[in-house]
Write a structure and sequence with these properties.
The structure holds two protein chains of two kinds. The longest helix of chain A has 30 residues, at 152-181. Chain A has helices at 21-32, 42-45, 61-89, 91-115, 118-138, 141-147, 152-181, 189-210, 247-267, 270-277, 284-312, 314-338, 341-370, 375-382, 384-406, 416-434, 447-456, 464-476. Chain A is mainly alpha-helical. Chain A is built from 18 helices and no strands. By secondary structure, chain B is mostly helical. Chain B has one helix and no strands. The longest helix of chain B is centred in the middle third of the chain and has 37 residues, at 2-38. In chain B, 19% of the residues are buried. At the A-B interface, helix 1, helix 7 and helix 11 of A face helix 1 of B.
């Protein structure tokens, strides 16, 4: 591939500052993180015809629920299948396609609202937007890991923190725009979709144009890999297809899936849960504040835990998530029953920080185990664990709760069993994490095979010019 | 020498601008969420 989007054109020049890469990644992740705030459109979308209240021909909430579900399914699919493509074409083109899909998804959805055809909205935000989400999520991660070999966790934490923060921008922005465009004839949602589609497209485009990959074998000035070798940080690389033949991939898949299932299960129910456990004390507005507080800890945890993993190690970080998680989940029923709301909020805040931390620590964990060469694609494939957990978590919590209420358990006590089951899931995750060992050398890429692979994945191939830049860049690039 | 210095300054300004570009909206989002979260303690 030649031209502006070619992988060779994205290789950084000698005076490039590596601290330009995190904002480029954030420019994408802050946009796609809007997905977590999609629910703010639900109520207006049920009043597109009736305006003040739902008309008989208006869309029902049950039909609208499919928009977000489709987006998450396509996020998982595009990350899994697009990851290998990302390794071939590089982050710039992948981010550009993500910008077109995510921004375009909003515009197609606006057409769907205008024509009042739900299938167009499914196609727009669900399919196109979902593909944009998946490609946008994985595209900057491997680049960041390669730029920050000394702080892999912190680097991925910065980008993935943006995904957590995206909803905090998306939600108030959507509400403000809908209020601005609302009139006696319109809920203002079509115009909001158009404006947001354009803003997100442009912002992601800036990220795409500014991202740069480091020259091969580049190292930060003055940094040398630790002399004492850590078995859990591989100096070898495993090919993206070979990864699927290693037990480590499936163990890591389970580790992420179980950590996310537990977190997502309680996150979706947080508002109802606190209102039912502290009935009469917590209003609907206070419960919304509780959810907001949890979002802050979810976002902060993404940066804090992944940065901490640079010092305590990836495996130890997940061990901490699971041990602390088991203790916290198992304590929730007793703390709720004691009526200590402050402690209850603190427990939830910690739980959500570890839920976010799991997302941001896993790419660095993958890079440690499988090497950095194909980490973007491998990460994409592992994100199917997230899509699975996205279905498993809420279903598990809802089903168990309904079953208990049917059995005559009081609403406020109906979450106890759920919490113990989540603690059980975390115990399984703890065992899976404990079983993770370095990859057997038979899976490593042999040096002789690297040239062959480079012809298939030109993104990682070096030209003579880049080799020269790499040799000269240790002091220039910060 | 001065060309190199002015280039370094331009790069630094660009870096600061780029960080502001992403951190201002994020700070706005965090402050909105924090204000909402404060209702929990009122």
């Amino acid at each position: 591939m030649s031209g502006f989007f070619s992988p060779q054109r994205t290789v950084a020049k000698a005076n490039y500052n590596r601290w330009m890469v995190p904002p480029a990644a954030l420019a994408v992740h802050l946009c796609i993180g809007q997905a977590y705030a999609f629910s703010v459109f639900n109520s207006p979308l049920t009043r597109v015809i009736g305006i003040t209240e739902s008309a008989p021909d208006d869309w029902k909430l049950t039909s609208l629920g499919w928009i977000f579900s489709l987006a998450i399914v396509f996020l998982g699919l595009s990350a899994a299948f697009g990851g290998k493509w990302l390794e071939k074409v590089g982050p710039r083109l992948t981010m550009f396609v993500a910008a077109c899909c995510f921004g375009g998804g909003f515009l197609v959805s606006a057409l769907g609202v205008y024509l009042h055809q739900i299938w167009i909205v499914y196609l727009g935000y669900g399919v196109l937007g979902g593909i944009g989400l998946g490609l946008g999520y994985v595209s900057p991660v491997s680049t960041l890991i390669k730029w920050f070999p000394d702080r892999r966790g912190m680097a991925t934490g910065m980008a993935i923190m943006g995904f957590g923060g995206g909803a905090m921008i998306g939600a108030p922005l959507s509400i403000w725009l809908m209020q601005h465009f609302a009139s006696p004839d319109s809920v203002g949602i079509m115009q909001t979709f158009i404006i947001m589609g354009c803003i997100y497209f442009l912002s992601m485009l800036i990220g795409s144009f500014t991202i740069r990959t480091p020259p091969q074998n580049w190292r930060p000035a003055g940094w040398t890999p630790p002399v004492v070798q850590n078995d859990m940080i591989s100096q070898h690389h495993v090919h993206i297809d070979q990864v699927l033949k290693t037990p480590q991939f499936y163990l890591l898949w389970l580790v992420l899936c179980l950590n996310v299932t537990a977190g997502i299960g309680v996150l979706g129910q947080a508002s109802v849960m606190i209102q039912e456990i502290f009935k009469g004390t917590i209003s609907a507005a206070a419960a919304a504040g509780f959810v907001g507080l949890l979002s802050l800890f979810n976002m902060g945890g993404r940066f804090f835990w992944s940065s901490a993993s640079d010092y305590i190690g990836r495996k130890h970080t997940f061990t901490l998530f699971f041990i602390l998680g088991i203790a916290l989940y198992a304590s929730v029923p007793a703390i709720g029953a004691s009526g200590n709301m402050g402690l209850f909020i603190l427990l939830y805040a910690l739980i959500l920080s570890m839920y976010g931390g799991g997302f941001s620590t896993i790419p660095a964990y993958l890079a440690d185990i499988f090497g950095t060469r194909y980490v973007g694609g491998i990460h994409g494939r592992l994100l199917t664990a997230w899509a699975t957990a996205g279905i498993l978590g809420p279903v598990l919590v809802n089903y168990i709760r309904e079953f208990q209420i049917e059995q005559g358990v009081a609403k406020a006590d109906a979450y106890s069993v759920t919490m113990y089951i989540m603690a059980g899931l975390l115990s399984l995750g703890f065992i899976c994490n404990l079983m993770i060992r370095p990859v057997h050398e038979k899976h490593h890429i042999k040096h002789d095979d690297l040239d062959k692979i480079d012809s298939l994945f030109p993104h990682s191939k070096q030209t003579d010019l880049e080799k020269s830049a790499a040799n000269n860049s240790h002091e220039e690039i910060r | 020498m001065s060309h190199s210095r002015s280039r370094k300054l331009t790069d630094l300004l660009l870096l600061i601008l780029f960080w502001l570009y992403v951190s201002i909206p994020l700070a706005w989002g965090v402050s909105s969420t924090l204000q909402k979260a404060l209702t929990l303690f009122k």
